[in-house]
Predict the 3D structure of the following.
Amino acid sequence: MEIIIAKNAGYCFGVKEAIQRTFHAVDLHRDKRIHTYGPLIHNPQVVQKLESMGVQSIDDIQDGKDSIVIIRSHGVPLEVYEKAKENNVEIIDATCPFVRKVQKIVYEYHQKGYSIVIIGDPTHPEVIGINGWCDNKAYILNHVFQVDSLPNFDKLCIVAQTTITSELWNAILKELNHKAKVVEPFNTICVATRERQSSCANVAQQVDAMIVIGGYHSSNTQKLLQISKKYCKYTYHVETAEDLPMDIIEKMNKIGVTAGASTPDWIIKEVIEKMSSMDQNNNEMMNMMEEIENSLRVPRRGHTIKGKVIHVTDSEIMVNIGYKSDGIIPKQEISNDLSVNPRELVKEGDEIEVYVLKTDDGEGNVLLSKKRIDAEKGWETVEEAASKGTTLQVKIVEVVKGGVIAVSNELRGFIPASQLSTSYVNNLNDFLGKQLAVNVIDFNREKRKIVFSHRAVLEKENVEKRKSLWQKIQKGSVIEGEVKRLTNFGAFVDIGGIDGLVHISDLSWGRVSQPSEVVKVGDHIKVVVLDFDQDKNKISLGLKQITQEPWENVHGKYNAGDIVEGKVVRLADFGAFVELEPGLDGLVHISQISDKHIAKPSQEVHIGQKVKVKILEINEESKRISLSIKDANEPEAVEIVNQEEPTTIGEIIESKDE
């Protein structure tokens, strides 16, 4: 006989958590009465065991007055928590995280004005509990035909009982999509349920007979039974090994086994042992026995173990470590970068290595750390980077005195302020959240100390840039650069690792008093290489040379006799200099400023004044232009029409008669 055991058979995370927390409460509170709100799980054998330990089930929270009440994994309506406070009931909430998620969705969307539909069994405690989070106003559907009886909605939120089949969810959802203007569906079937049902279907198609182990009143076990019967004619539901139809099983060559989420390992073990007694060579059985035995072994503090991620939230990761309790990795043990979302690091189904911090965190969970394993691996990377001089990528996570804290491979290192940049850093907070390339300049593994330098990386990059630039730089070449610094005598421009100087006289063809009149720090400009000296690491640049010299364009643009507008840019005793355009000035001699006699030009004009001037002469050879203000302002000549006036009395009379 061959026995095939479906994956994910038996306790799910929520059920296992509820049982562990109950056992822990019994050990911790021996002097108090302890109750469960309804049967803890749908398995009579487990319930009987709890009763033997003094844990009784109650159906009304008021019956637990002045005692401890454990909320089962199915969850309860919101009003139960309120009544618990009124009756001095100490609550231990073992609601399954997947069920809690459904409750939160229903509560949130009910508050937003959505109508709620729950796809599931209206008599199941989980569904009753979920309905209690929307004032018991949800529409509960368990069959497709029930959709027709629903009214039409404006806004509809749809959730699922965590243990229903995907087929039922898809079938009802398809019909509900036409029932509202806005539909928000949330497939809240738990991952463990989907995996358990999928593996059940897979095994059922391979075997002669299928054994489904679980309580007769367990909803998820009933779903497994339905799925098995769909693919295997000989499917049998048993609660314990005593219920096995041995007379039928012994005739089968291949037997499949699965178990509901509320079925304890010891019952599964008994069922398999009884069947395998007919064939001691069953390898699959031996493996299953070994897995069950392993689940009873306590993980030791300080050990590294492997586990499978079964659930991820914003604040923790739950890991199946093959023990009776699952492991919990709290957010502070996931990564040294607390801004990271755990969902970005792992997903359900991933196999990861973890470090055991505690075998019991006070609530029956094994406390684990992921970052400590990652950090140990990170030291190898740090040591290699230090010895080879290679760079590491780090993220700045904290500002401290004298520098910042950076995280790389889950290791925290220090970057002094002087090592953040090649220039002075005014505000360290500007670096928070940034990714930087760094070198390791010091480390001590025993003291867990690392010092990084971003400046070393920048300096190395600049050396390479300068080397490359010196190889290709030529006089007359046009290069793009960034203005880095201004002085009274010019502007320094970074052209790729080297700062070149644009002298104030080369900023513009026009007259410039301060470089800031032409450029500002941060400007990206094109410049011409005028000269360079590699030995002295100096480069002379020109900005005005990018444009044509104004005198080259004078011919044809300006002519003697033209009247144009200009700006007074300089005054002298002998006249005023007027700028026609940047780099093109003309002289208005003092005698050409006004018709009246003046002692100095400032009596009539001032610097910055716009004036009309007449071009008297252009000398391109000596690059001089003579201008006149007074000639430009002469009144226009009035045309005089000669008309003979009457001179005699007769002519005057004659003209009047006309």
